[in-house]
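Translate sequence into structure tokens.
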Amino acid sequence: MKLSSYITLIRPKQWIKNFFIFAPAFFAGNLSEPKILRLTLIAFIAFCLVSSSVYVINDIFDVEADRFHPRKKFRPLATGEISINSAILITIIMLIFAILLITQLNISFAFITLTYILMNLLYSFKVKHIVILDVFFISLGFVLRIEAGATAIGVSVSSWMMLTTIFLSLFLAISKRRAELTSIEPGNLEIQRKVLNHYDVTFADQMNTLAATGTVICYALYTVSEKAISTFHSENLIYTTPFVVYGIFRYLYLLHKKNLGENPELVITKDISLIINVFLWLIVSLLIIYKHKFPFLS
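Result follows.
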């Protein structure tokens, strides 16, 4: 059995979503503190193991449907490269290592992680077939990542940050549904993802317009909120908003003109313009948020 098949099975490319765990520490302005960084890294690794376990479980339940999908049919379980029993074994191993890491954190983090697992199981069994609620469950996964990161280091999350996360994750989830609608043959919708029968491109575009608008507005309001200004000792975070707007616009361009979006993690990591935009946003945010801790950044 090829090691590459197991790597494909656990989908490390999906771990990019777990970087949301770093957001609370980053925006709290204390990610530079060794203890905070260590706890955040432990939370990140634990969540990567847990999320990979969830992906494998989903693949086990969706193995028959995946065999009819133009891209998912090449997944190890769908091709038969890895057996169901082997997939179950690797899932158990990952969960054991995750539990060992979680014991180094607090009980609240463990509760959030358990909630994430149960939520995804509920999604796999039932919710993924319920229109609109399916994308809200995907969004909830990102919210739990933010809460997990905050709980791990004992900080509170700004209401505006939470709203930004909700709208951004809804935007990505709806974009994924739209991309699926345009990439899957109409006759295979029932086999590959039943809920797509309840969506159409126009409806998805209308929802995405609302989600994109909500993302930009909530982020902009977060940058000028009293909590943000008092935490960063600066009103300059507002100048990072253009990067967020460009990122949304660029993603919409790739979705509508290049028919991408079914795999958000691939879009974000392979589009050069988006990569540069995220890098610039990160640098500017770093200079603003950590300026008071590192005078040489002035």
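Note: The mean pLDDT is 88.
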